[in-house]
Amino acid sequence: MDRLPERLLYRVEEAGQELGLSRATVFELLSSGELDSVTIGRSRRIPRQALEEFVARLRAGSPVEAA
Prior knowledge:
- By secondary structure, this protein is of the alpha+beta class.
- The protein has 3 helices and 3 strands.
- It has a 3-stranded antiparallel β-sheet.
- Strand 2 and strand 3 (about 45) form a beta hairpin.
- The radius of gyration is 11 Å and the shape is globular.
- The relative contact order is 0.21.
């Protein structure tokens, strides 16, 4: 599977691809506040830093709701 180019903001589908999660799971994480995002017009984007922080919390053993 090809990696996405590293950039500052990702679409929900791209963030899911980076995390190995479904689009629906990413939306659940966004809805619960476990994953941060920004809104540009009607589009939701997930900052690369938010993905990295989410993974760091997982690695630290921080509980994450099962999506």
